[in-house]
Specification:
The chain has about 375 residues and is of the alpha/beta class. It contains 11 helices and 12 strands. Bound molecules: adenosine-5'-triphosphate (ATP).
Length: about 375
């Protein structure tokens, strides 16, 4: 059913470059919705993050969480600042609390080449990547119920938690994503379980559940890969992957590595999806090293906005919202295709304004 009123979006600009990249993203979302004839979005700005912690003593105030829970979707830029920490030395990461609170078990991290953006590999096949990493996002080595402990000053432990319930839902999501990609003519119809099942009992269990879920998705091909071998293959033959599904910590590391293949952190969007809620956020952090210099690449944030419109469109059977998301992706491709924009990750000077304006221009020039 088409939603006649605008969607309510909880907007968390957060810390560091977060507010910088959020601004062009919202502008482009509004423009795309208008062009697509979609009902559009109404934004509720919410404060959370390291600076909020410093000012209020809470990184994710109750009111912010309540706003997020009530929203149709959540758009988050970046949170954290290495200079602001909890007394135990860990960083402020309310984005993780949001995942736990809202049950956002599936981190969808597309690794798609943008025409005109050259990654580090010489092989031309690396310029046409279209793979996706599904990162489990509420347990594994990040599980809040198995938080690490330090014993005196002599040892410390962490627990890696794999549950049947979350793993089943995670693998089902990976197979659904594979099916949707197949329907859209994308991918190789293969889902790869990335683990370390040769050494750890938790990963042997993870793989066993993968096999059980795979048994109900017989049209898809499946295989396994150890995480260390995957790290290597991502650097040599990334085009041979399709849908990869893995544990939280492995996904955290591999998704940064994979982002490098398509230009860097500023090009890697993501979605953290649960049964009801979803957060859309670039894979990058608050990048304190470039904050305030106008260098931040807003592309990952803008593409995360496109993923949000696609998810809302799918959830509400709203073709116009889905179309708005597709227009944004097309505009990003058209803006970069001539090869004139070169962002700081790639040694260039094109900054926040140049990229934001080029994408906006490409959007308004689309033949609709
Ligand atoms: P987190 O752990 O919070 O995800 P991180 O430690 O992985 O953060 P980032 O903040 O993502 O670190 O930054 C990693 C590097 O990538 C930094 O050098 C940063 O400047 C660069 N970077 C991150 N985002 C962007 C962006 N949007 N545009 C340009 N460079 C970026």
């Amino acid at each position: 059913m088409n939603q006649p009123t605008p969607y309510t979006i909880a907007v968390f600009p957060g810390d560091g470059i977060g507010p910088e990249v959020m601004q062009p993203c919202l502008d482009i979302i509004h423009t795309a919705c208008e062009l697509a004839g979609a009902a559009g979005v109404k934004t509720d700005h919410v404060e959370a993050g390291a600076v909020t912690y410093q000012q209020t003593g809470s990184a994710l105030p109750d009111s912010a969480l309540a706003t997020a829970k009530q929203a149709d979707a959540i758009l988050l830029a970046a949170m954290g600042d290495p200079a602001i920490r909890y007394p135990d030395g860990t960083e402020i990461t309310p984005q993780l609390n949001l995942r736990f609170e809202l049950g956002l078990f599936a981190g969808i991290r597309p690794v798609r080449s943008i025409p005109g953006v050259k990654g580090p590999l010489r092989d031309p096949r690396a310029d046409a990547l279209d793979i996706v990493l599904v990162r489990e996002s509420i347990e594994g080595l990040f599980a809040p119920e198995a938080k690490g402990e330090q014993f005196e000053d002599s040892s410390a432990t962490e627990t890696l938690l794999i549950t049947r319930d979350v793993s089943e839902r995670l693998f089902s999501k990976a197979f659904q994503l594979n099916a949707a990609r197949q329907k859209a003519g994308r991918g190789r119809n293969r889902v790869t379980c990335v683990d370390k099942a040769n050494v750890f009992a938790a990963f042997a269990f993870f793989r066993k559940i993968f096999d059980e879920v795979a048994a109900s998705h017989t049209t898809a091909q499946t295989d396994y890969a150890y995480v260390d071998a995957t790290a290597l293959k991502l650097m040599t033959h990334p085009w041979e992957f399709d849908v990869m599904v893995t544990e939280n910590m492995f996904g955290d590391i591999l998704s940064d590595q994979a982002a490098a293949l398509v230009g860097g952190m500023g090009y890697a969007p993501s979605a953290d999806i649960g049964d009801e809620h979803a957060v859309f956020q670039p894979c990058h952090g608050s990048a304190p090293d470039i904050v305030g210099q106008g260098l931040a690449n807003p592309t990952a944030m803008i593409l995360s906005g496109a993923m949000m419109l696609d998810w809302l469109g799918e959830k509400h059977a709203d073709a116009a919202a889905k179309n708005a998301g597709q227009l944004i992706v097309q505009a990003v491709d058209n803006a970069f295709a001539p090869g004139k924009l070169k962002t700081c990750e790639l040694g260039g000077q094109s900054g926040l304004d140049d990229v934001g304006k080029a994408i906006k221009k490409a959007l308004t020039e689309l033949k609709i």
